[in-house]
């Protein structure tokens, strides 16, 4: 929990948001620890998890922005 507090404080200090925060882990009921952070003013049009079973024990997380 202490690590989570440090990350949340850094996001706030740097003016970032995490559009992947609510995306699921590959194991049902868990949340991912792999995230993408972007500036608060960036509009996110899509955020999703792409399964990578067989390649990695982590899935891929991607975002689409209006840049």
Termini distance? 34 Å
Shape: flat
**How would you write the strand order of the largest sheet?**
1-2
The biggest sheet amounts to: 2 strands, antiparallel
Provide the low-confidence segments as ranges: none
Q: What is the N-to-C succession of helices and strands? A: HEEEE
Can you count the beta strands?
A: 4
Classify the helix fraction into a percent range. 10-25%
How many structural domains are formed by the residues?
Answer: 1
Radius of gyration: 13 Å
Mean pLDDT value: 89
Strand content: 25-35%
Please identify the structural class as seen in this structure: alpha+beta
Number of distinct helices: 1
Report on this model:
By secondary structure, the protein is of the alpha+beta class. It has one domain. It has one helix at 2-14, and strands spanning 16-17, 38-39, 44-50, 60-65. The strands form two sheets. Strands 1-2 form a two-stranded antiparallel ribbon. The protein has a two-stranded antiparallel sheet with strand order 3-4. It is flat. The N and C termini lie far apart (34 Å).
Summarize the structure.
The protein is α+β, with helices and mostly antiparallel strands and 67 residues long. The chain contains one helix and four strands; from the N terminus they run H-E-E-E-E.
List keywords for this structure.
two-stranded antiparallel sheet; 4 strands; flat; single chain; 67 residues; alpha+beta
